[in-house]
Amino acid sequence: MIATMPITGVTLRGLLGRRRTLLMVLLVGLPLLVALLLRVGGNSIAPDEILSPMVVRTILPLVALVFGTAALGSELEDGTAVYLIVKPIPRWRIIGAKMLVAAGLTAALILPASVATGVVAAGVGPGSLATTFAYALAAAVGGAAYACAFVALSAFTGRALIIGLAYTLIWEGILAGLLEGTKFLSVREATLGIAAGLDEAPFGQTPLAFPLSIAIIAVVIAGSFVLGSLRLARFEIRGGD
Amino acid sequence: MTDTLTPETTPTDTPPGWVPVQPSGPVPALAVEHVSRWYGNVVAVNDITFGLGPGVTGLLGPNGAGKTTLLHLLAGLLQPSAGTVTVAGERAWMNPPVYRKLGLVPEREAVYPYLTGREFVLLNAKLQGLADVDAAVDRAVLTVDLAAAAHRPIGTYSKGMRQRIKLAGALVHDPPILLLDEPFNGMDPRQRLHMIELLRSMAAEGRTILFSSHILEEVERLADSVLVIYAGRLAASGDFRSIRRLMTDRPHTFTVRSSNDRRLASALLGDPSVFGAELYDGVLSVRTSDFGAFTRSVPRVARDEGITLFELLPTDDSLESVFSYLVRR
Amino acid sequence: MTASNAPLRASGPGGSIYDLGYQGYSGPRLGRAYAIRALFGHTLRAAYGIGRGGRAKIIPFGLAALPLLIAAIGVGIAALAKQAGELGSIVEESSPIRYAAFSGLISTFVILFCAAQGPELLGRDQRYGVLPLYFSRALARVDYSLAKIAGMVTALLVLIVLPYIVLFVGRVFVADSPVDGLSAELPSVPPLIAQSLLTAGVLGCLSMVISAHTPRRAYATVGIIAALLIPSIVVAVLHEEAFGGLGDYLVLFSPTDVLDGLNAALFDTQPGSPVVLDIDLPGYAYLAAAIVMTLVFIGLTVRRYQKISA
Hints:
The complex is a heterotrimer. Chain A has 9 helices and no strands. By secondary structure, chain A is mostly helical. Chain A has one domain. In chain A, 55% of the residues are buried. Chain B is α/β, with parallel strands linked by helices. Chain B folds into 2 domains: 30-241, 3-Layer(aba) Sandwich (Rossmann fold), CATH 3.40.50.300; 247-328, Alpha-Beta Plaits. In chain B, strand 12 (274-280) and strand 13 (283-288) form a beta hairpin. In chain B, helix 2 runs parallel beside helix 4 (159-171) and helix 3 packs across helix 4. Chain C has one domain. In chain C, 73% of the residues lie in helices and 2% in strands. In chain C, helix 6 packs antiparallel against helix 8 (189-212), helix 6 (141-174) runs antiparallel to helix 13 (283-307) and helix 11 packs across helix 13 (283-307). The two termini of chain C are 43 Å apart. The chains are: A mainly alpha, B alpha/beta, C mainly alpha. At the A-B interface, helix 1 and helix 4 of A face helix 1 and helix 2 of B.
């Protein structure tokens, strides 16, 4: 753990540059803004009606993508990763530290934003609050899983951002919705399954079972850690000449 | 730069730091054996073998010759396609503990711009697991003469300062082996001299230093021995003067100043060791294919003719001419 | 000082100048129009990674190949359905080879292509400081912007039109006779052209305007996705809670919904987006919005390159 602290610090400072932080705060503030506008217009909706489409399906993967691909990917692209690699520390410590930061930042932004959005949109009645917290927690967990997966992905390719986007938009957006049997391959479905398991299933939908969703998240995080570490252990830096 | 002509000097003198790879004997600090690295059809490093010990060795080669590839192979950043790379007796590839003994100054300019100089060296020190990080950091920053600027973000540094802070980061754990990729890039002459002195003193402490460069004057001044690499192959290795003497198929050129150049020239042309003589613009240049015999003939011929020799200078016994000869073949 | 073998151009006591045969160029120069065409062609090729080695082609060609594949499969299914007679006619009804349904399907690939390649086309020049090289030529700054935009839009047109061609040909031959098929399909051609042009225009120019404002690839990519995804989500959530009738017009600020509405109007079908379905604005509104958006994006891009320091 001792060796991971400096890496965590450097990664954190690298991710929280002014522009990126501003962008991310705006991004997670958007559902809150929409909820405010709804309330001002004199309407209220159930928390899952705003948290599911706006946060889980849209903002969550984007935030996780930005933090996840930048945590390791920006250093590999800039060439500053070499200073972490030529050190007598096992590569899994590097991957672990990066994942910790990316997942942590994602969850740290998503959780309060989701709670605030749900509360503003639906008030603090017991039923609404339960749903709000269920979705917020599920989103934080799902976001952590996304972020870890994207950190591992950026160890494999420099185009992790686009590939991650393609996964989110094409696979999770279209296909997994169409083909029931493949739902277990979608982090989004697992997130929704956790939310439903903590609260109750939204009307007319059949989300994944709760234990299965937890298992999927665990597999994604663990698998990303293992695969990312193995890949980084064999990472080659070519140099210009 | 006058060369002292001592007939006893033989080409086989091994310069300091030069340790040929041997199965039995002291373990060289850096050793590559029949190392190759290819990318598909392109061979970047082609069957290179050498061993290095304490001292400074310069790695020379034109762009694209494979210098950075070789340095990255030594630093464990690339896997050899064939052969072995050994650092302090251990494998370099996929072996993180070896970095306790190795410091690398890479070529790429990028360093974390948002960290101050001191924070960057501190990061390196912590990742190396040093016991007294602050003392080590202070020492390293002082060594590269950046104590005044260490509190500023690296993003504000000039190119030469960035090179120096990279060096500080590579030195903080006091490694016995140091690899530097184009360390003089972006340095002004004063900084370059400072760096040369620094590297020399570190080598005198017993460190093994390998650096790559295009700047031949600095290599000549700093390196005890050179490795010349061209198109992925090792073209020559050792002390550059010895290499020059081994280039027997290329005549040596000398400049002679005497009391009577014209008569000396015609007398020398009668000597079998002399290849050609040229008197142009008041300067006598003599070409010889037999270095040793020539050094014995010239004083004799001059004495026989009653001519006084003022100056005898090898004009192409420089690293530049050696290098240009080797890479032009 | 040894002399070079080259003939002397001038010499004096201190030094000599040798004539190496360098000459000024006094022949015809191809001028501005040629430069613009050359940049356009280069941009079009760069959008597909042509001229940059294998790896650069994977993503653009991959994203272009998938809609083609889907179109081919759709045609195959329709052909089989035809063979199957009555049962087949049910399949044919819901087959994906109706143009309107198809455009909704491939819009995701178009968006990904924009997000992937837009930053590549404009980000590189900004990052590596080559803009001064461009602007010191016959090429004016506005020419640079327009040529780059034209290249991207054309690249998108290729991606959009090729599957439509497959669908068109497929439908012609699946019909009872090719002649019947042709006469049935020909009226679809003008809407198809309009739809393709406007889709390529709106999405292409959006990706260009965002890519022009940042040299970092990751920011531009995320920016493009955010600019498309977020308005549509916001509109979806807010449209019911109208601000009077004005809330309806909110949908015109979301590029994806505008294109969806346009699609529905051109092919006279139900729109895919529930928002557009609810709001039910006339087709001309979407058409106007699409054109205005495209022009605004182009204008902002041109303005960016007029002001950028190079």
